[in-house]
Amino acid sequence: MGNAVLLIEDDVRLGELLVEYLSEAGFSVQHALTGAQGLASMQATPTPDVVVLDLMLPDMDGLDVCRQLRARSTVPILMLTARGDAMDRVVGLEMGADDYVPKPFEPRELLARLRAILRRGAPIASIVPANVMQFGRLSIDLDARQVLLDGQAKELTSYQFDLLVVLAERAGRVLSREVLMEALKQQSLEAFDRSIDVHISRVRAAIEDDVKQPKRILTVRGAGYVFARQQL
Fold first, then answer.
1. How far apart are alpha carbons 62 and 67 in whole angstroms?
2. How far apart are CA 201 and CA 117, in angstroms?
3. How many whole angstroms separate alpha carbon 17 and alpha carbon 228?
4. Whole-model pTM?
5. How far apart, in whole angstroms, are the C-alpha atoms of residue 121 and residue 135?
6. Of 143, 154, 124, 92, which is closest to residue 226 (Cα–Cα)?
7. Is the bond into 107 cis (omega within 30 degrees of 0)?
8. Is 147 in contact with 135 (CB distance < 8 Å)?
């Protein structure tokens, strides 16, 4: 069998259709009808390679299921959303989902999105030991609040460390200055959002090999910043 998919979808007919379609495409599919069943399935062996999560579930909010899944695992998550639920999509992506497909959809679109997610390789970060995010030569120790590059500690302020963690936890997604500041709202912020640019430059000075050609924290002109998923 190919990659393992955990489908969390309460629509029995749609679920059966997707199980059949994805199985014919070479996937091994486990179907859970509720959020609780889906969360319990994450404890099974083997664990899934990707989760397809419907946000409209009978027993609990799909966004809460997404949050709990992300707290337990770095498994990629593809959300299924009602076409009008734009805010749910945004919140779901902020909680750590990797992509979404709005309903109604063609099964082949879902298949293409799943294959794209799996082609990206490893999840956001491999955990080496607990509470350490590893990106190539860069390690972020959440417990020790320490950043290592090639095993050498890098000096960051508490604010800069938190900023780096926000970016790393959402690796591969473009984050605007407003989103970054909102994520850091418990910190003492300067009055102007351009202060984020200053902090980004200082984080880059600590973790980039060449600050003039950054490879870890990239600027998306007019949109914000993105932390690279794959790093050397």
1. 9
2. 30
3. 35
4. 0.54
5. 13
6. 124
7. no
8. no
